[in-house]
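Support request, please re-run this one:
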Amino acid sequence: MEEKVFPHELVDAQHRAFDFLESHRRSDGSWVGEMSSSALATAISCLALSLHPDAAPEGAVERGLGWLAADQNPDGGWGDGVVDPSNMNATSLTAAVLSMCAPREYEEEIRAAREWVDRHGGFEAINDPSRVTLSGPCRSLWALCGFVRWEEIRKLPTEMILLPRRIRRTVSTTFPAFLSLSMMHERFVPSPGFWQPVKRRATKEALGWLRKAQGPNGSYEESAFLTSLIVVALTQAEVGATDIVGRALPFIRESQREDGSWPIDRDLENFDSAQAVFAYHAAGRPVPRAGELRRWFLAGQFRKPFFATSSPPGGWAWALPAGWPDSDDTAYALKALRLLGVPPDHEAIRLGLSWCYAMQNRDGSWPTFVRNSRMPFDHDDPYITSQILSAFSMMEKEVREGRSARRALRYLREKQHEDGSFDSLWFRAYTRGTANVLEALVDLGLAQDEMAQKAARWLATHQNDDGGWSDGHGEAPSTAEETSWAVGALLSYDPARHRREIERGVRWLIDRQRPDGGWDPAVIGLYYASLSYSNSFYALTYPLIALSRYRRRVLEG
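Re-run finished. Output below.
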């Protein structure tokens, strides 16, 4: 393959990508990509609507079930992001839903799925939270559809709601599902009579919590999967939650796509919009309609304490109106606002920084949603921590070099692997974590630090033979996202030292750009620790940033 990058190719690739980006801008000045459809979300949404046929559009459930059947892998299982390998979460839950909604029509699909489950540990694995990420929903659905007896499953305690807030909130974003499933468990496996007064109190408190946590659009966390799971659980629990269910059903209906499927979450509008700002900045271009976009970001900041996680004012969520404030999107919004001309002493910036300080874990890291959580999807994370540090780098000296930043750097030193790499909670390891930490260190003026040198060396030595990057394990094919992360980080660190690797990566990106200006998205994003998705804007803005940096720092620098 030709590895030389010609200026006219680079300019053409940039123009096409920017044209594609601008054509997808929304009327309010922001952007949003498209997340891949999800077997998990589609299955549970079909079940939720089937339990409330009067609220379901004609043919909606049938189209969803048909999509599931067509999406089944040859081995009998389902993955998360359409092209994913089969996994226990999606396979066990989808098999249960098909058996409840259309057992005769999909008899063969159900049989093949159950055989897949048996080959991979059977119900013993489903019932074990250490082996199956979504054990709670999956084992509950297996009991609900009759695959196992209710007495066989691990029961969730509604009494969790009665614990002090500082303890129960560490359950983080799964708490709405936890409460709903626990009430369904209680209906089918009642507690002893002497415990019923406690159960009644817990149920009342849990329903009150769920009512308060439900978003203005009826959803929980902008997620069709989570919202539908809660509808199913509360409907089966028969605890008088018709108001919650009634508000949730329209969101579920409206989230279905034309092909019958549902995505796991509505969108990532804050993240995608910030990435677009970063792309214009990397190219040295002014952001069109910058004032409008600046107002959009400012309007999205939480100005009151957030009930569900007890976080203070100042954060941003991935989407509104029902997203939860999180460290990743808060860091991105702060960076975008600075690039859009908002000064560091602006009220919104100062409030956002206060939020970051309050959310820092005891070990110096940052979680995603809840301080000091130990949940598999919300514990300490080098990637999230480096995002906050990168935002700090755009602030005044007292922030860049303050105690909070120093604590975070100590944490990163402790978490760097011997080979120089870093983990990433929300993207598959290790390219994303390593590239992001390296960029944050460069942003802070620490390019000569041994930690940065080791990270750069890891990236340079884990390039695939085709010139791209994948997850760092050497077996997965290269992706546009991971190639862009590695190229962008090496360009920030030392373009001259790593010019060979950078040029091969840029060549890979140019050769794989689609005629419309974008790139094919890869299933590299993670949610709930082991379940994956793709997002079309990851495969547009990240390559655009890498190409723009290369043009300015190598060809023009």
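Strands lie at 37-38, 262-263, 525-527, 531-533. Residues 196-213 form the longest helix (18 residues).
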